[in-house]
Fold this protein.
Amino acid sequence: MSQKISLSTATIVSMNAMIGASIFTIPVALAIKTGPAGIITVLLVALGVWFMAGAFARLAKVFPKDGSFYTYAKSWGGHTAGVIASYAYLTGLMIALGLLIRLASYALQYYYPDYSVLTLGLVILAVVLFLNSCGIKVSALGQYVLIVLTVFPLLATIFLCLAKLNLNYLTPFAPFGWLNILTASQIVIFSFFGFESITSLFGIVENPEQNVPKATAYSVMLVALIYLLFIGSIILAVPLNLFTSASVPLATILLQIFPTATWLIQMISLSIIISIIGTIHAMIWSSSNLLVSLTNKLASPWAKQLCKNKWFNHRTAVLLIGLLILTTFLTLNNINMFFNLTALFIVLTYGLSIVALLKIKTERNFNSLIKTYLGLGTVLAIIIFATAGLITEIAKLF
């Protein structure tokens, strides 16, 4: 396209990529693990994401036309590294989508209490798979509707909680220990996934060398501010003892604090459900296209034959993606496991991509190296905490 998008538009695109259904799952899980100190976790993760996002902005400058996880990792580790990075990202997405379907089922159970989470989850998955296999894309108008439905519950919750702010809820500030402020990073990072999306639009952004890094920085800062207000308002308005399980829908907790605002809580709950389903629909579409693209890049003869004969196309990819999501939905019912596994795979992909900067001559100056190592340090820290959290959850099973 000959038209270019401005800095403000690029910032909004990046914000829309980050602000999604996942933010509605974070406050309860974070409060259970950290208490009020979760506010610090959001700040620390936002800072780490800022460094990682800056690294991706610089990668987009080096690979402006075909920038992708595969391209970035391949530049230093060859085809194998590119495939590992891409499939690690896909694996993380499948786990994340399994989590979103489970959370959508919990929220939908508010309206249909007679149906089990399993039944509702299967219905949701069947509907979004049908829409994708038919090739139905959400229209531009539909995208705006989904954005509004995502932002509305955030703002409504913030203003609702402002009427019930209680500074006494800040004490004890770290009831579960100060270390949990760091280990909870794998929960918060979930809500920042998508920050790298703006780099794929490098070629259509005005003055991209300056505006892509600016849009990345501005969007991360604005989203972090929104998250701080959202999570902070909930923590200051809801007693800690009401956060009993990460699977309890946020609307159910708010209803205990605001029993007279039933209509508003129901609107918030419905908006959350729609935004989650919209996210699932969009991610299945994009991940199926990514899977087809990756299969085309595989060196094996059978993969090339499948693609050449068009046996493996968008529709079959959608069905395979659906099968993988169904597997994670049925086998993982521990929300902490979902968070840890998703963070582990997706952040691993980020790390394999950022390493490419160390091999680029123009990125070997002191300032660039410091920023790159800080981004890699964030990746390493989240991988360590996610791995430790995963081991803890597995140990609980035995």
Q: What stands out?
A: Residues 217 and 398 are 44 Å apart (CA to CA). Confidence is low (pLDDT under 50) at residues 136-140.
